[in-house]
Amino acid sequence: xxxxxxxxxxSLAAKVIFSTVLLSxxxxxxxxxxxxxxxxxxxxxxxxxxxxxxxxxxxxxAQYEFLLVEGANTDIITETVQKIIISSTEVSLNQDRKSxxxxxxxxxxxxxxxxxxxxxxxxxxxxxxxSFPSDLRQRVRASDLVEYKYxxxxxxxxxxxxxxxxxKRIAIPDSGKYEMYLVYSLNNQNTTLxxxxxxxxxxxxxxxxxxxxxxxxxxxxxxxxxREAARIAQQFTEGDFSQRMKVESSDEIATLGTAFNEMALxxxxxxxxxxxxxxxxxxxxxxxxxxxxxxxxxxxxASEVIYSAKADFDPNVARSSELLVAQLDRxxxxxxxxxxxxxxxxxxxxxxxxxxDLVRLIERCIEDVRANAHDHPISVxxxxxxxxxxxxxxxxxxxxIMRNLLSNALDHADEKPIKVSVVATxxxxxVGVRDFGPxxxxxxLSRVFDRFWRADxxxxxxxxxxxxxxxxxxxxxxxxxxxxxxxxxxGHGAHFVLTLPLIAGAQISGRPxxxxxxxxxxxx
Amino acid sequence: MTLVMxxxxxxxxxxxxxxxxxxxxxxxxxxxxxxxxxxxxxxxPPDLVLLDVMLPGLDGIEVCKLIRAESMVPIVMLSAxxxxxxxxxxxxxxxxxxxxxxxxxxxxxxxxxxxxxxxxNADISGLLVIGDLSIDVTAHEVSRAGKKIALTRLEFDxxxxxxxxxxxxxxxxxxxxxxWGYRHSTDTRLVNVHVQRLRSKVEHDPExxxxxxTVRGVGYKAGVLGGS
Lengths: 524, 228
Hints:
The complex is a heterodimer.
Chain A: H1 2-10, H2 12-68, H3 74-88, E1 98-105, E2 122-123, E3 127-128, H4 134-142, E4 147-155, E5 161-172, E6 176-185, H5 187-237, H6 252-308, H7 315-345, E7 354-357, H8 358-372, E8 380-384, E9 390-393, H9 395-412, E10 418-424, E11 428-435, H10 442-447, H11 469-479, E12 483-488, E13 494-501
Parallel strand pairs in A: 8-10
Antiparallel strand pairs in A: 1-2, 1-6, 3-4, 4-5, 5-6, 7-9, 10-11, 11-13, 12-13
Chain B: E1 3-7, H1 11-23, E2 27-31, H2 37-43, E3 48-52, H3 60-70, E4 75-79, H4 84-92, E5 97-100, H5 106-117, E6 127-130, E7 133-136, E8 141-144, E9 147-149, H6 153-163, E10 170-171, H7 172-180, H8 189-202, E11 212-215, E12 219-222
Parallel strand pairs in B: 1-2, 1-3, 3-4, 4-5
Antiparallel strand pairs in B: 6-7, 7-8, 8-9, 10-12, 11-12
């Protein structure tokens, strides 16, 4: 039932069919009822007229017979009564049963030969006479005409039945006045009526079924293209623009199909145009980066040659050579990062997983970063619960993530210690890099992974980061199906947490290290 | 004096390389077209070839294959592309090492060149055995059942590095340090490609190596089959 309601609610076809059938049911019901009442009235009328005509002739016949035997002896009269009873209850072809009831009323005729006048009162088929309607009997006794009434009578050994009773007053010689009734069973009429009723009912049902079927066929014609359009639109969202609707006629549905196909074509060409545009752009960035490498190599070597001879130079020239070397370093780093970003944008970044010990890699990164940060007295503690965490990941990318996180932490540590923690579960590993510098507010936190975004433009350039480090780190982490989360609070430092699946590409089910650091109290 | 052949189509870079190498006491032969390399190479065989990938005339990868076909001279590829695809292609063509432009320091380039030119394992001499291979370190020869196997210098160095401490597991990093002279590098592709190449020459069945064995998750070691 619930499924049915669901279907009616969600399917246009079911909805239309359901309401059409419901409305048709009302119409069929009304017309059926009217038809039935007219038909049954007609049947009853015909039946009544034929029954009454027959009853009249029976009564007339009885009266005529009795007239003939007037003055005859009792035996002959009795015989005549018997004859009349038999002839009156004789059933014709289309009749079911006919009963007779004779009853003497009023005072009996004066006995002709000193005897008591005989009483011919009788009833056939064991009719219970008391169940006769009394108003009919009064009318019959008082009237000279044939009176009739529909009534329900009882039988001694049969079920009660609806009958037509016709009655007339007659006189039997040497006996007295009688009321004579003919009781017509309505069984046949009822059978006819129920036959009509059943035919109407089944015709109605068949009609409803046919209406449902026709509606379904018609609705399908309309709904099929709509469904097809929906299916194709679904495929569009999945990126498949090759599907088209079939247009076979020139009606509204065909218009829908044509419009739909035109839309698909327009969408497709628009997307292709945008794709080409971005491909050209990415290609351009990549080409520029590659083309810059050769002159940059020459530049670097030239600057190194000059730098190595700086002892012989005037102090300004010597310092200039130092700046030249430093800026070339920065320029190169920026070029590398740009190239990497263009690879991510072009979605051509490939993961090259190998098995290695993450803890050892982190220790090496810390050593290197610490060596490069000789001007910052920074202590980096590593606190890991296991000696070794074997992972299958792209070592180059993981190393880059760690270097980016560590140098970012160094940039913002304000010469306070940095804490690195490693926690592994059976499926993933978390690496937290915590600094206790100025921290970040919510706005900064939400933009910290944006390209070229700097928390504090006035200070971040000191160490010469490219502004792409964290966004590349995030892309690197996601390429592994991992995640990089950031936490920060003004005045309480920042915490960056890298979560990687132990096997690159597997799903991570949680965070072994929560971004909210343990040392920071839950905000009240 | 040592002679290095520099093949690069960028005149300025080639000249700069010449200045740096000459400054380090190395003679330089400059070639700017790929299709001229082989002729110069035959006329004046260098001790090492510094080869750019993108060359007019003939692609650097093809040039590398041609040189390798007739000489075991160390080849260092120069590439403007750091993409694995190009690096692996260069190494598979027979290069021993590669450097991605721009180099971190000219001194790094010189160090690499010196590593490739140096007689490695000068401290050990005599005969080493792994499996059914015998390695004559002094004569720089590898043979199996009296039959010589031709290896490049780098492949030889790699084999000796493993063979001189049989049973020791070398991480890829350790091999990079020992054979290529890298201090900090995570570029294990270099090791992987050369191990594959070495195996294809010395193993009976490179799919089931018995000489250079993989230790999963760690690195490589020399096989001890028949070594007793």
